[in-house]
Amino acid sequence: MKRIHCLPLITLVLVACHSLPAITPWEQAPAGIEAACRDAFPRQAWRMVHTITTDFPGQRKGVMLGVVSLVPEKESVECALLSIEGLRLFEAHDDGTLTIRRALPPFDRPALAKGMMRDIRLLFFPPEGPRLLNGHMPSGDPVCRYALADGYQDITRKPTGNIVIQRYDRRYRLTHRVDITRCHPDGAAGKEAVPCRIHLEAFQPATYQLDLDLVEARPAVDNQ
Amino acid sequence: MTNARPTAPCHPLRTRTRHMGLAALVLMTLAWSSSWDSIHSAAQDIRSVQATFTQEKHLQILAQPLQSNGLLIFSAPDRLRWEYQAPLPSVLLMDEGRIQRFVKTGDTWTEDASAALPAMSFVMQEIGRWMNGRFDENPDFDARLEPDGRIVLTPRQAALATVIQKIALQLAKTPGVIESVTVYEDDDNFTRLHFKDVTVNQPIDPAMFKQRS
Predict the structure, then answer these.
(1) Entry pTM
(2) Which of A44, A80, B199, B203 could form a disulfide with A91 if both were Cys (CB 3.0 to 4.6 A apart)?
(3) Are strands A174-183 and B108-111 parallel, antiparallel or unpaired?
(4) What tens digit of pLDDT does each residue of B117-147 get?
(5) What is the spatial distance between Cα A41 and Cα A153, in angstroms, rounded to a whole number?
(6) What is the ipTM of this complex?
């Protein structure tokens, strides 16, 4: 009987106990590993348009267009969310201070706007925190781990060239997992590769997933 | 050697008749957009419209407009197919009041359930009104007809004006046909659709307005 009473407690303890994935530090770190992790994100100013697809129950999908204008040097981003027909549903500017220029329902909920901007920074900007360690995963994939104000972030390079970002909260719970495929956009020869296919899964505090596919990317001049 | 064919000298009366005919045609085509009554009257003869379109989305945050193209098919009184062929294939269907959107992802068409659909339902119903020549019948907009066949719709309510500042429609010379539509969200952000290859009153298969399998 006592054993039965203990079961919920054991389950609770097991659920509550999370840990970050083990990283084996390099015995001899490959040259430029730190730069390689940061180079996973755009270093130049870009204006990009992606389709954004999300799944709904009943095999239905929601598709919109996402526009971002990034200036990594200034850590600033402008973004807009459009219907396929071009109706601007949401627009915001974030240079450290979030300014919402337009928000039609349901995008007028402050938490949603904040969450969108957090996702955009996760996808397009290096983590805002110091590097904790470099090493490799049990699979051998090189990984960099950063400490954030509200958790941790791992950036892993897959043998395919894909970048995998995993973000954890302070309790080591996986909150986001992102798989990024980069490519050189048409008409931008000689420029860096940009995220052309992104699969984002969010687990905490809300559960959702998004697929982004690049429609076009153009280098941006800051003062344009 | 030349291919130029000799031309017969024109008889002065024939030339005058031709000019008068041309003038009458110009007056007739311009006249349809001269008043609300003539616009309503011209629209009564419209049973169907098919056109291709190019769309430019001008955004303050984009240096160059986002371009897309597609096909618009209308069948009176209330069937509409608004199809984008590129860059993202999708189709909005309005069939006797029911509005659905389908998006092509990979090789399959799936029903779209995005949050944008309610707003697009409003737009689709408005387009249906325009195709019927009822530009001045939406109580949400003040409609102004300008001498050059331009119609400007301005929201009456401040709440709607925060979404759409105004809509400008340029009527074509062909009676019942719209040449372009520009939807201004504000001075820096607007969407412009140009219609071309317009055909009027051709038979249209009702299946064009039904759900794709």
Answers:
(1) 0.81
(2) A80
(3) unpaired
(4) 666 777 777 888 888 888 988 899 999 999 8
(5) 14
(6) 0.79
